[in-house]
Design brief:
alpha/beta, single chain
Length: 263
């Protein structure tokens, strides 16, 4: 909540919360946030996606504090046998990625839906194309005019912006089964808890090293990589970035307040 206020993230804009797993650093702030929503007068539904045990935790906290929230919580228990689409609307989908950690853990892929072709404005001004034909043209069909002329689709449409995608993978050990699922995403966040000289620590704790994250990014042919979830032993993160970039050049550090643009 302090970070929300520091970076001017509006509380009322948050309608969906995705939680990868139930280690404390990933969910212990949630009940406080739910309480703040309540105190701020929230009325809209809040959707939470997480392990089914989290619902028990939330219900227990609310019961013990005798709190009745002013808004509905819609809880979506996650499954851990395979990746699934857990949210979709007209603009995007959210899919789980099964990770390899000490307790059930998933990552998430956020994908924009691909927009249809765009009909050129000048064509609409010069040709008598009925609205009923728009949908077929946007799907790639040619248009036949009343006088018999055929307007080729490539001549009367332009390509839309390419749909973007972002994958979040934390916490996890090195786990090649995720490669096919996250393949070709525009932006990948992958944990890099340890430098490469702590490889055994990573194996023991089911976390990843800098080289693990870089190899996953390279094999999945992602466009950009963000590393994060650093061990507290590293005061200077330049070492972690350098090791990652030695394998996957287009890598960056996750740092508080930093914005990553996906183009």
């Amino acid at each position: 909540q302090m970070q929300f206020r520091k970076y001017k993230i509006k509380f009322q804009k948050i309608n969906h919360i995705f939680i990868s797993h139930l280690h404390g650093d990933h969910y212990l702030g949630l009940v406080g946030l739910l309480s703040s929503f309540h105190l701020l007068g929230r009325k809209n539904d809040l959707h939470i996606y997480s392990h089914e045990s989290l619902k028990t935790i939330i219900d227990s906290q609310l019961e013990i504090s005798q709190t009745v929230l002013q808004y509905p919580i819609i809880f979506h228990p996650l499954e851990y046998d395979k990746s699934r689409v857990i949210f979709e609307n007209d603009q995007m989908t959210v899919e789980t990625v099964i990770l390899n950690h000490r307790i059930p853990t998933v990552g998430f892929i956020f994908r924009e839906r691909q927009l249809p072709l765009k009909i050129k404005k000048e064509v609409l001004l010069t040709e008598d194309i009925p609205v009923a034909a728009f949908d077929k043209i946007k799907k790639g069909e040619d248009f036949i005019c009343n006088d018999g002329r055929v307007l080729k689709n490539s001549d009367i449409t332009t390509l839309p912006a390419i749909a973007n995608s972002y994958a979040y993978c934390s916490d996890t050990g090195y786990f090649e089964p995720i490669i096919e699922i996250i393949k070709n995403v525009d932006l990948l966040y992958h944990e890099a808890t340890f430098a490469k000289d702590r490889n055994q620590n990573a194996i023991d704790k089911l976390h990843s090293t800098t080289e693990d994250a870089a190899h996953i990014a390279k094999k999945a042919n992602v466009k950009r990589l963000i590393i994060g979830h650093y061990s507290a032993r590293y005061d200077d993160l330049s070492l972690l970035l350098s090791e990652t970039k030695n394998i996957f050049e287009n890598s960056e550090l996750a740092e508080d307040g930093k914005t990553f643009m996906v183009d």
